[in-house]
Amino acid sequence: MEQPVSTREAYTGGNVQPVEGRDVPRVVAVLRRFEATTAVWVFVAFVLFVLILNPLYHLVLESFQLTRGQGVEWTLRNYIKAFTEPLYRGPVLWTFIVSAAVGPLSLMVGAAVAWCVGRTDMPLPGFIRTSVLLSFVTPPFLGAIAWIFLAGPREGWLNIIYRGITGAAGHEYLFNIFTMPGVVFTMALFTFPQVFIVVLAALNNIPSDVEDAASIAGGNSLSTMVNITLPLVLPALMAGLLLAVLEAMTLLGIPAVLAIPARQHLMTTQIRAIMDEGIDAVGLAAAYSFPILVAAALLVWMQRAALGRRGYATVGGKGGHRRPQKLGVWRYPVFAMCMVPVTCAIVLPYFALIATSFMKNLGHGLTWSNMTLENYRSIFQSRAIASSMVNTLLLATMAATGATLLASVIAYISQRQLVHGHRHLGLLATLPLGIPGIVLGVGLFAAYTKAPFVLYGTLWILFLAYVTKFLPLAYQASNAALMSIHPELEESGRILGANRLTVFKDVTVPLFKVGLLASWLLVFMPSLRELSTSALIWTIDTKVISVVILNLYDEARLADIAALGVILMIVTLAVVVCVFRMMGRDFMRA
Amino acid sequence: MATVDLVGLTKVFGGKVRVVDRLDLHIEHGELVSILGPSGCGKTTTLRLVAGFLQPDEGEVRVDGKLISSSSFSVSPDKRNMSMIFQSYGLWPHKTVYQNVAYGLKFRDVTRAEADRKVRAMLEVVRMEGLADRYPAELSGGQQQRVALARALVVEPSILLLDEPLSNLDANLREEMRFEIRRLHDKFKITSIYVTHDQAEAMVTSDRTVVMNMGKVEQIGTPREIYERPRTRFVAEFVGKTNSFRGVLRGRDQLEVAPGIFLRTAGDNEFREGQCVLASVRPHNVELYSEGRGPSATTGHNVWSGRVTRAHYFGDSVDYLVELPNWPQPIRAILPPNVWFRTGDPVRLVIDPAKCVLLLDLPED
What we know:
heterodimer, A: mainly alpha, two-stranded antiparallel ribbon, 2 strands, 1% strand, globular, B: alpha+beta, six-stranded mixed sheet, five-stranded antiparallel sheet, 8 helices, 21 strands, elongated
C-alpha cells in the first residue's frame, strides 16, 4: 500500500499472466472482456427475433392488406369480413362453447385422478400415473380417429355391441362421436393429462405435516382438505383449467376429424378452410386468427399469474414424507373410477387402433378371417407415405437439435446473467407458448411465401415452425437442468486457473448432458406428431406423417391410418425408451 | 505468499444497497484473517471481490501492492493464483477425487509425473489417500470437505479464500474440521481469508478477526481482543453472550446504571465524565457466591446481594439469571457446575471491574 502503483498496472507476480498492458485504453479493455459473450447474445437475440417476431409481424401486416392486381391495398376489410359474415361467426361461438365445456370437464377428471394417485392408498397408483402420461404422448387426432372406430354411429364397436345386446335396428346407435358432445368428450380425454400433471406436482409438494397440523388442531378430513389442501393446490387447479381451455381452443386435429363430419367448423378448422382458398385469402385468415391469438396470450399470462409466486418451489416444505388418505372399503371402487378415463383415453383407443390396423373390412369385426397384414404393406409400398416418414424423422431430429442448442445457450446466458437484458431473452424464448400452432402456421405462410425469404415448399419452413413452437419446452428443460448445476461448480474451476471456455467444456457441458438430452426428447416427441402448424404450410414434397394421416382421413382410408398410427406410436415409444435408457446409464456414472 | 490490501472497497447492488461499504483491511504474509458477521453483512461479497467473481464499484484490491481489482480494471479469477473453498464445496460430481484434486495442476507448469506426486502427497496430507478413485457422491460431508481442501491447496496458491467452509457439516464434524483447517494453515502458511458467521470457527482458526455488520467493519483485532475488549455494542453482542448496561459515566470508571447505583468498570480514556456509555460484562465473568462468602466490597470489586430467578443446567456449565434490587435489568451469569444454586436462592454477585468494558452508546437501529 505504501509504494505508489499505477492503477493501470497489471498483476504479474508468480505464474500469473498479464491481462492488460499499461497502454491499452479502457474501451478496448472493456470490449475485449465482453466481446465473445456479447457477440453470442446479439446473435441469439437476432435468431429469436426472426423466429418469433417475423411471423407475427407478417400476420399483422397481411391482416390489413388486400391484393389488388399488382398492388397492395391497406384496408380493414379483412376484419370486417371475418367478424360480420354469419359463415365465420358460427365457429367463433362454437369454439367458445367447446372450450368452456372442455376446461371444467378436464379439470374435474384430471384433478380427481391426481388426488387419488397422489394422496390416497388406492391400489396401483403408479400404473394409473404411467397410463395418464401415456395418453399425453398420444396424438389427439389419432385418438379421435380411434374413437370413430369405437363410437361411430354405424360401424362403431360400442354401437355394434349395443345393437347386439338390445336387438335394435341397424340404423340405431347409442353413441355418436360425430357430434359436439363427442368433440368435447374426445378433447377432454386428451387435455385432462395436462391438469393431472400440474395438480399432481402441486399435491406432491405439500408435506403431510401441513395437513397433520390441521388435523391435530381439531379439523376432520373434510375440513383439512377444504381449508388447507385446497387453497394450496388452488393455483395449480387454476393453471390446469386454463391450460385445458387453451388446448381445446387451439386444437386442430380433433375438430378436423370429428366436427367437420358434424357439419360445424371450429375456428381452427375454419382458418384451415380459408387458407385452402389460396394465397389471396391469407389476409382474411390472419384477421380471423386474432381472437385466438389474443385469447391464447391472455390464458398463458393468467396461467403464469396463477402459479406465479406461489409456484411449485414455494409450496414445498420438506416435500418428502406424505401419509396417504385411507380409503378403506372404497379403495377398489376409487381405483375403478380412475380406470374410467384411463380406459377411454388409452385402453379402448389403442385396442381399436391396433385391431383395426390388422382388419380387412372394418364392419366385419374381430374374426380370424377378417385379419390381414395388407394395411401395413400398402403403407410401406406407398412412396408418398414413405417419404413423409423420412421427412418427419428428419424434421424432428433437426428441430430437436436446433431448439435444444438455441434454448441451452439462452438458458445459460439468462441464468448466469452474462449480459444486461438476459431476462428479456428468457421471456422471448417462452413467448411461443402464447402463439397457437394454427396462428403460427398463418404467420409463417405470410412471412415465407414472398421474396426475399421464400421458404414455402421446402422443409425449412417446417423446421422453423417446429423450432419456434417447441422452443419453450426446450428452454424450460434446459433452464431446469442448468439450475441444478451450482454456479460454485464453475467458479471453483475458474479460481483454479481455467478460463470461462475451459470451464464450460470441462464442467458445464458434462453436467448439462442429461438435461440437454431431456430437452432434445421434449422437442423430438411432439415434432413427430405436430399437426396444427404443419397443416397450413405443407406441400406435396414436404408432407409429414400427421398431414398424411389427415389426408388419408379425407379419403376415408381408415385402416391405413390405423396401421400408420401404430407405427408412429411404436417409433415414439422406442425413442422414449432409448433415451431414458441412455439417461439412466449416464446418471449411474455421474 | 502474499499480502492483501483492501482499500476503500465498495460494492453496490441494485444501484443503492451498499453491500460492502468502504472497507479497509491489510493482511500480512501468511496470516489467516477471518471475516465474521451475520448473514447479509457483506462478508461473502467481500470474498468474491477478492476472488474476482465480482468487480468493486469503488476502491481497490491489491496483492503484494499490485492492483488486481478496481472499478475500471479486474484481473480475471483464473489469473489470480488464488484458491477458494466454497460453501457447497463445489466438487465436480463427474470427476473422481483424484481428478478433482488434479484439475488445477493442468493450468500450472508441472509435468505429469510431478502432478501425480503432488496430488498423492496432498491426498495424504488430508488423509484421503485411500479414496482417490471415489466419486464425490460416494463420500461423507467431512470427506468432501477434505477433498475440497486438497484441491485448493495442491496448486500452492498465494492466497486461500474460504467461504463458510464448514456450514454444511454437522456440529461434531465442524468442530473437528476447525482444528484441521488451522493445522493445514500452520503447515502451509498460506495467506488466507476465512468468511464465517460462527464465532467459534473464527476464534479457533484465525490470527485476526474482522467483525462486519451491514457492509462496514465494526472491529478488527485478535480473537482475544475481539472477545475481551469489544469496541461496539454490536461486537459485544454478536461475539459471545453479554450483559450490556446503559448508564452515565461518573468519575473515570464509575457508571451510574440507575439513580444511586454504580457499577465500577475498567474505565476508558476515550470517554468523558457525564457521557452516556454502555458497559459490557460477559456472563462468564460474573461470579456468584452463597451469602457471607466470597470477596467483600472493600477489595474494589463490584459486590451486590440478589436472588436467582432462573437456573439452567447445561452439563458443563449452569446458566443463571440473577435479580438485584433496584437494578434496571437482571444479570446473566454462567458458572461451572460445581456450585449449584436453585431458583429463589439468595446469592452474592461479584464482578471484577477489569472485566467491565465500556462501549460507545449508539442509538439502536
